[in-house]
Amino acid sequence: MDKRSAVHHRRRGIRWTSFSLVHPTGGFMITAGSSVRIRVRCKTGGIDFSIGLETTMHLTRDDLYSLEKYAEIRSDFRTRVMAHKKQRQVAIGAHATLYFEDRLTMQYQIQEMLRAERIFESAGIQDELDAYNPMVPDGSNWKATFMIEYEDVEERRDALMRLRGIEDRVWVQVADFDRVYAIADEDMEREDATKTSAVHFLRFELTAPMSAAMKQGATLALGTDHPEYGYQVEATPEVRDSLAGDLAD
């Protein structure tokens, strides 16, 4: 199971497993499952009307495999997820990495937790969904696990003291737009008076023009500007395209 921790807080929202729209005249019918965004506009009988519906991007129980099914497909599923994760991680210097999360990476985390703990009761499954869903992007943002990585224990301890506050100095920049600094650790404080944590959970909230630019292929830079750890890198096309897919049209 991945060494990253879950974010344990709850976020309220509407969860629709499925729905359908049927025009009274039988002119059209639309059905959709969870995590689908739909905009409908039509004219009938001289009346112009529009309908806009949006479902949550969060995971529900219907998105998860049963323990038995997951045991059958785990090897292939894990291979798929690991390949997907490679397109969503960015090294910032030699000792820090951003791991961008989405529905697939969070589904994997949940499935692995359910498997490890042998959780099959509804309440337990819902607890895991509530813990991990806050890390699923909402369509206007990116969410990432930020890890400070030093193999040597003493070196890591020293670095965490020197890098206190680094979680607030991590940024992304779309093309020539202003840098967007991370909103860090919304669930709980992960640093104390002497040191930061090796793991942080970040949210980067983008403006509509930034999102539109990403959809059009804009460049993406990422970095940190902490006094003790300043780096800037440019996302590869694979990472850029994967992150653009997190943003709503």
Q: How much is the average pLDDT?
A: 84
Please report the number of helical segments. Answer: 6
Using only C-alpha atoms, the radius of gyration works out to: 21 Å
Q: Give the number of domains.
A: 2
> What's the order of the H and E elements?
EEEEHEEHHEHEEEEHEEH
User: Which percent band covers the strand fraction?
Assistant: 25-35%
Side-by-side strand order of the widest sheet: 5-6-7-11-10
Helical content band: 25-40%
The total strand number stands at 13
The main pleated sheet reads as: 5 strands, antiparallel
Query: Any low-confidence stretches, pLDDT <50, length ≥5?
Result: 2-44, 46-55
Oligomer: single chain
End-to-end separation: 33 Å
Secondary structural class: alpha+beta
Shape: globular
What features would you describe in this structure?
- InterPro entries: DUF3501 (IPR021890).
- Pfam families: DUF3501.
- The protein is an alpha+beta fold and 249 residues long.
- The chain folds into two domains: 18-54, no CATH class; 61-244, no CATH class.
- It is built from six helices and 13 strands.
- The chain has helices at 67-86, 103-117, 122-132, 153-162, 208-215, 237-244; strands spanning 18-22, 29-33, 37-44, 47-54, 89-91, 96-100, 141-148, 170-174, 180-181, 183-184, 199-205, 220-226, 229-234.
- The strands form four sheets. The chain has a five-stranded antiparallel β-sheet with strand order 5-6-7-11-10, with no helix packed on it.
- Helix 1 crosses helix 2 (103-117) and helix 2 (103-117) runs antiparallel to helix 3 (122-132).
- The protein starts with 17 loop residues before the first strand and ends in a 5-residue tail after the last helix.
- The model is unreliable at 2-44 and 46-55 (pLDDT under 50).
